[in-house]
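stage 2 :: seqdesign
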């Protein structure tokens, strides 16, 4: 197994670094003054599933930045360090962009504070510098282990952002049917997720002491991250849908998560506006393979092609 992992890693890194692509932050701005609440017309379900992400990402991506700034002194590979620094700069702007989108939700009369407070506690306290929010565990003997574990959690999360990024690059319905500003925010963000999809995985690998330990720990962390990812995405959508002016739409906010995931599967197949639940499951199963590497999960050139025509990214140049 270690031989398979080493071969896949070497091939992926050779291909990635041969491209010679440096990560850069694009200081984008978005105007949502004309963006409707259901920015995908006649599809409130997809609109809320996607809009719920605005509630999760600002705190989460700032947490990524804090953890990676702590990990930087442990990085002995110059090329990887440069990629981690580029990742940090991109994620900080992602956080700011989605914070602005929270104002768009408030402007439509939706309250986001209760859900955002839970997310802030998760990333700021439970996953903060005191392990599991227990001050007694904040000890020098545990600090490196806790840091590497959090780097691993980020790697598992970034697997989903990477595969969703490639899904968005292949998607045509957002631009064809949706609000232009909101479609551009998500496609710009997800294009950058494709662009930096290898960084989190490579950093976690770099900080693990053995390849076997890396493989076992990343599987254990994915077993934790996958259900939490599904829960927080689902709850974000439900918390917004419960406040919709239309009582028929408010039913989305009362769906149990299994029923919500069934609706995600059905809506994704019917409209193409959201990825299906089976898409997420299959992507997670690929992570299990010993030879897995995120380089093979996306197309950097396709992502850069979108960034070259993104209105917000081009205005930021």
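stage 2 :: out
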């Amino acid at each position: 197994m270690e031989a398979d992992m080493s071969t896949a890693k070497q091939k992926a890194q050779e291909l990635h670094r041969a491209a010679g692509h440096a990560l850069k932050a694009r200081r984008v701005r978005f105007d949502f003054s004309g963006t409707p609440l259901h920015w995908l017309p006649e599809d409130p379900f997809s609109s809320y599933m996607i809009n719920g992400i605005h509630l999760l990402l600002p705190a989460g991506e700032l947490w990524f930045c804090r953890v990676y700034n702590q990990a930087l002194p442990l990085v002995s590979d110059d090329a990887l360090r440069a990629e981690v620094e580029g990742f940090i700069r991109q994620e900080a702007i992602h956080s700011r962009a989605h914070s602005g989108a929270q104002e768009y939700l408030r402007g439509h009369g939706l309250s986001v504070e209760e859900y955002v407070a839970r997310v802030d506690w998760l990333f700021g306290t439970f996953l903060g510098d005191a392990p599991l929010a227990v001050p007694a565990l904040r000890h020098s003997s545990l600090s490196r282990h806790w840091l590497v574990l959090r780097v691993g959690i980020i790697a598992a999360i970034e697997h989903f952002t990477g595969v969703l990024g490639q899904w968005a690059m292949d998607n045509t319905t957002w631009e064809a049917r949706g609000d232009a500003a909101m479609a551009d925010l998500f496609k710009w963000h997800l294009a950058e997720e494709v662009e930096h999809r290898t960084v989190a995985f490579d950093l976690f690998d770099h900080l693990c002491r053995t390849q076997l330990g890396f493989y076992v720990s990343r599987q254990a962390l994915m077993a934790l991250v996958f259900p939490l990812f599904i829960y927080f995405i689902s709850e974000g959508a439900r918390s917004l849908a419960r406040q919709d002016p239309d009582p028929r739409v408010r039913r989305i906010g009362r769906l149990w998560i299994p029923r919500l995931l069934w609706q995600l599967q059905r809506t994704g197949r019917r409209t193409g506006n959201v990825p299906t639940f089976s898409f997420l499951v299959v992507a997670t199963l690929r992570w299990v393979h010993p030879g897995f590497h995120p380089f093979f999960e996306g197309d950097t050139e396709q992502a850069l092609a979108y960034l070259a025509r993104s209105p917000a990214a081009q205005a930021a140049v």
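stage 3 :: structure notes
- The two ends are 45 Å apart (CA to CA).
- The mean pLDDT is 95.
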